[in-house]
Amino acid sequence: MRLFVSVDLPEQFAEPIAAIQENLASAPGITLTDPTQAHVTLYFLGDVDPDEVDGIVTALERAVDSVDLDPFEARFGGLGVFPSLEYIRVVWLGVEQGETALVVLQEAVEDSLEPLGFEPDDHEFTPHVTLGRMNHAGGKAHVQSMVQERSPTVGTMTVDSISLTESVLLSEGAKHKTLESISLE
User: Fold this and answer.
1) Is 87 helix (H, G, I), strand (E, B) or coil?
2) Architecture of domain 2-183
3) How far is residue 113's CA from residue 118's CA, in Å, rounded to a whole number?
4) Which one-letter DSSP state was computed for residue 1?
């Protein structure tokens, strides 16, 4: 099973995300994500034995309990890229409000999974929603222009849970299935 931990965006965000992606679609070399599966990845676990799922869920419950975080508002907007505007691999939608709480959640998730053998990320966590991935630099100028000139706002949601999600890789792209949802309440 290929798993990750996420904060899933509501269905009503799919349309405004798709509108942003429509403007990115003309960039040669970009592969867009499915806007109906928009999420903030808190931790990518990778391939996991199904027998480990219960232990992971318990660790995630401990993580949520440890931060004692009430449901909070998160506003999504603005565009960015990883790793840099000169070498674009990922184009993303940013977090304009709620970023600190998402960072706290991510750190707690990472800390709770480490005793199970999952390595901490080797880079600083930047909360974001992946909009697309660049396969080559053909569309770099178009993406640079969008990131520098546009600051779309998608909407605000209440973050009240995190999800353990399975990603099934298919020829038409990844399909996500929530295995468990852990409430912040």
Assistant:
1) coil
2) Alpha-Beta Complex (3.90)
3) 6
4) -
Report cis status (omega within 30 of 0) of the bond before 83.
Answer: yes
The domain segmentation of the chain, as residue ranges, is 2-183
Instruction: Output the pTM of the full model.
Output: 0.95
Cα–Cα distance measured from residue 45 to residue 47, given in angstroms and rounded to the nearest whole number:
7
- Dihedral sign (CA 6, 148, 81, 143): positive
Dist. CA 72–CA 6, nearest whole Å: 15
Q: CB–CB of 91/30 below 8 Å?
A: yes
Here the tokens at position 94 are 């940013």
pLDDT in single tens digits along all 185 residues of the chain: 999 999 999 999 999 999 999 999 999 999 999 999 999 999 999 999 999 999 999 999 999 999 989 999 999 999 999 999 999 999 999 999 999 999 999 999 999 999 999 999 888 999 999 999 999 999 999 999 999 999 999 999 999 999 999 999 888 778 999 999 999 98
Q: Give bridge partners of residue 7 from the DSSP assignment.
A: 40
Q: What is the DSSP string of 113-138?
A: HGGGTPPPPSS----EEEEEEESSGG
Q: Is 128 a catalytic residue?
A: yes
Q: Which of 123, 128, 136, 176 is catalytic?
A: 128
- Report the C-alpha gap between 11 and 87 in whole angstroms: 31
